[in-house]
Design brief:
Strand order of the largest sheet: 10-9-8-11-12-13
Structural class: alpha/beta
Number of helices: 13
Number of domains: 2
Bound molecules: NADPH dihydro-nicotinamide-adenine-dinucleotide phosphate
């Protein structure tokens, strides 16, 4: 059995979903309520591969909300992740994806040091960040998106916002070796880490996002922002392609200007319907066959019986592992959304 640990994108989003599900009393509650709410298994999921194999899984809502980070409620945020992991393990789930901010909190707050939790020892082999599949899918979105929207990759300047992150650094490695792009621009806040990444890649220009946007043909957004940023469409190059892989989205507003295409980054479409209700709450842009690549990674591991933390730690995603998970993705009927 596979599992998905997810969360909603804001307090307003959580209140809206509670209301739509008929829990009016929860829809009225403020952040303090969500800080103490326990994790819940809110959906059973059945997925069929194009190979014919069928697997089942569960969706665990952690009740984490990004405002907990914005308002520095770090203890609540870490307990949400540990509680959700313990809940998944107690329910016998073999391999669970740590969706959205779950793996970021796990790393940033060093939860590896807290695996003995409430009479349970968390077994990290039962969890995967899902970031290898996400990075692979985003790279395919760059390549297929460029082709679809008439951008010549060989002449393109590609910016990665969140370049030093787990997903961002893997995308940079792929773009440096596999895709013949002309220029790579690296954006993040910590200059030391940017410099170290640049040194390891042997290429890339370090810039602020404001400097990068007017010269970028493609922008990959994979920064861990608890709240999306406002950008003025006027400064974007025309034409250009924006691939927003953030959850919550890196772009605060929907950009609708001629010659600027926006793709939901890190999203896949399955060849067959997935039997679940939860995706419409987690990602309202997508119909029933579309899902986050990190969630799909736990499904792929379950299809293959690979009960191991395939994606783990930070900045350790190799091109070989991206190839491996990419091959499974195609084998079982997933494809990038462009
Ligand atoms: P990491 O924490 O590993 O990396 C985050 C990166 O963003 C770092 O480079 C960080 O560098 C940078 N960053 C953070 N804030 C800013 C800012 N304000 N401006 C510029 N750069 C910033 O995160 P992950 O790689 O694990 O995840 C990245 C995003 O992808 C998240 O939004 C996450 O929720 C989403 N995600 C999507 C998935 C999917 O299936 N579609 C799966 C998993 C994650 P610095 O701190 O130096 O600025």
């Amino acid at each position: 059995m596979f599992g998905l640990i997810g969360h909603l994108t804001s307090l307003a989003h959580a209140q809206e979903v509670a209301r739509e599900l008929g829990y009016e009393e929860y829809a009225q509650k403020d952040l303090d309520f969500w800080c103490v709410a326990p994790p819940q298994i809110v959906a059973d999921i059945t997925v069929k591969s194009i190979t014919g194999k069928t697997i089942v899984g569960k969706y665990v809502e952690s009740c984490f909300l990004p405002e907990m980070l914005l308002l520095k409620k770090f203890k609540a945020a870490t307990r949400k992740v540990l509680n959700a992991m313990a809940h998944a393990q107690k329910h016998g789930i073999n391999i669970t994806a740590l969706g959205g901010f779950s793996s970021i909190i796990f790393e940033n707050f060093n939860l590896m040091e807290m695996l003995h939790f409430r009479n349970i020892k968390l077994e990290v082999e039962r969890f995967t960040t899902g970031n290898t599949h996400t990075a692979y899918i985003i790279c395919r979105q760059v390549e297929e998106g460029a082709q679809k929207y008439g951008i010549d990759l060989a002449k393109a300047t590609v910016t990665v916002c969140g370049a030093t992150g787990d997903i961002g650094s893997a995308v940079c490695r792929w773009l440096s070796v596999r895709s013949p792009i002309q220029e790579l621009i690296l954006v993040a806040r910590n200059q030391e880490r940017l410099q170290a990444l640049r040194d390891s890649l042997g290429r890339g220009k370090i810039m602020t996002i404001e400097e990068a946007l007017p010269q970028s043909d493609i922008v990959v957004w994979v920064a861990s922002m608890a709240k999306g940023m406002e950008i003025s469409p006027a400064i974007l190059k025309k034409p250009s392609l924006l691939i927003d892989g953030g959850y919550p989205k890196n772009l605060a507003t929907t950009i609708q200007v001629p010659d600027v295409q926006v793709i939901n980054g890190g999203m896949v479409e399955h060849a067959l319907d997935v039997d679940w209700q939860i995706m419409k709450w987690v990602n309202r842009y997508a119909p029933s066959r579309q899902l986050f690549a990190c969630f799909a990674e736990s499904m792929l591991l379950e299809f293959e019986g690979w009960y191991t933390n395939f994606s783990w730690g930070r900045n350790q995603i190799t091109l070989e592992k991206m190839d491996q998970i990419g091959a499974l993705s195609r084998k079982h009927g997933f494809r990038p959304i462009v």
